[in-house]
Amino acid sequence: MTRDPVRVTLRVNGRPETGWAEPRTTLADFLRQELGLTGTHVGCEQGVCGACTVVLDGAAVRSCLVFAVQADGCAVETVEGLAGEGAPGREAVHPLQTAFREASAVQCGFCTPGFLMTALVALRERDDWDRAALRERLGGNLCRCTGYQTVVDAVLAAAPEVRALEGEGGRR
Amino acid sequence: MKTAPFDYVRADSVADALAALGSADDARVLAGGQSLLPVMALRLATPELLVDISRCPELRTYRREDGVLTVGAAVPVRTLELDPAVGGAHPLLVRTLRLVAHPEIRARGTLCGSLAHADPAAELPALLLATDGEVEVAGPDGPRRVAAADLFTGPFGTALGEGELVVSARLPLPAPAARWAVDEVSRRPGDFALAGVVCGLELDGAGRCSSARVVLFGVAGTPVRAAGAEQLLLGERVTGAVLDAAAAAAFDGVEVVGDEVHASADYRRRAGRALVRRALAAVAEDRS
């Protein structure tokens, strides 16, 4: 029993990472402060806004509602893992990110990492989203700028390419 | 806000968890954490110790046996929702789960956690009450079962005692002849209900109602049986006039609680009656 920092080991975007976390440190703060992965944004810190959404063992979750110690030994995907050199079959920018840019689904960008990770999981779940169902599927993420239309446009536009990429074993 | 500091123990078994719960004055059980973490982040709860049961192997299972679906305390509800076998055995459960928050919350949140948290606006306590479910509890004085009708004592209040732990929920599977519906009014999908209903009817060979269950949630301090509506349905053919009368009586004797932020008591009562009427019609016409 302890409230002192304990060692936490995760597989983050395919790489083993270790750090120290007090029991009260959320996964979001652990990723940002201990591992320096500041792409995951912390908005409300109470599970309402979805900005901190990451993929934990394959499921999209709120990283502000998971203590880092609970995730010990788990695999985490963050926005940093979407694109970049070294990611097999990946360009510098992920098709979802390209689609967000082309559809103007980004304004201030604060909510974007959360939307991207939710959308990634949504497109892994199925590739035949209709607009209404996708709106509801993305309903746990808040955006205060775009009005959501362009976000939904972007995810629908990216679906075929994301499915192709995931099919090539792009999922880590 | 960040939570206040606390001690943390990961329990590997129910026995471990009970020992840990007994070791501190203010210990709380952590499973999915989807209700507890927000409460702690708001500093509405500042437990001294969290006992993490989310990796207890014995709590991570669910099974169907003798007409009952028993769900361990560490099973995320998204697992149930996505399991076709659960959907086949208990379609009402899956329809109810789809009203609970968002998939990202359901990926971690648990059935037993929702029952122990006892939010009066939550769907799952109402489902447990409507279907005569119960929870299996472990504690310092041994195991016991608590029926839904005895479990919910007030807003965020349960009959669980100091050091007790819900180890599983027992959901009787709906009878083949029963028809059920669940519905709610909320501002957006995924929000807590401003008014909600779980209702079920069984009709006999002559088309008369032989069993009626109407449970309201989001309108009072706990989920509550709409006894007025149930009585008007029993023994009747479920005509439009009967459904009108039942919906009108749904709030008889129910102490409706409103608030200035989400919805007044008057709104909840009026929306609730319309909702009961709609849900009963769906059940009566078997298009739930």
UniProtKB/TrEMBL annotation, chain A:
This is Carbon-monoxide dehydrogenase small subunit. InterPro entries: 2Fe-2S-bd (IPR002888), 2Fe-2S-bd_dom_sf (IPR036884), 2Fe-2S_ferredoxin-like_sf (IPR036010), 2Fe-2S_ferredoxin-type (IPR001041), 2Fe2S_fd_BS (IPR006058), Beta-grasp_dom_sf (IPR012675), Diverse_Oxidoreductases (IPR051452). One of its GO terms (molecular function) is metal ion binding. Residues 6-82 form the 2Fe-2S ferredoxin-type domain. Keywords: 2Fe-2S, Iron, Iron-sulfur, Metal-binding, Oxidoreductase. The keyword Secreted does not apply. It comes from the Bacteria.
Automatic annotation (TrEMBL), chain B:
This is Carbon-monoxide dehydrogenase medium subunit. It holds the Pfam family CO_deh_flav_C. SUPFAM superfamilies: CO dehydrogenase flavoprotein C-terminal domain-like, FAD-binding/transporter-associated domain-like. SMART domains: CO_deh_flav_C (SM01092). The lineage of its organism: Bacteria, Bacillati, Actinomycetota, Actinomycetes, Geodermatophilales. One of its GO terms (molecular function) is oxidoreductase activity. Residues 1-176 form the FAD-binding PCMH-type domain. The keyword Flavoprotein applies. PROSITE patterns: FAD_PCMH (PS51387). It comes from the Bacteria. InterPro entries: CO_DH_flav_C, CO_DH_flav_C_dom_sf, Diverse_Substr_Oxidored, FAD-bd_PCMH, FAD-bd_PCMH-like_sf, FAD-bd_PCMH_sub1, FAD-bd_PCMH_sub2, Mopterin_DH_FAD-bd. Keywords: FAD, Flavoprotein, Oxidoreductase.
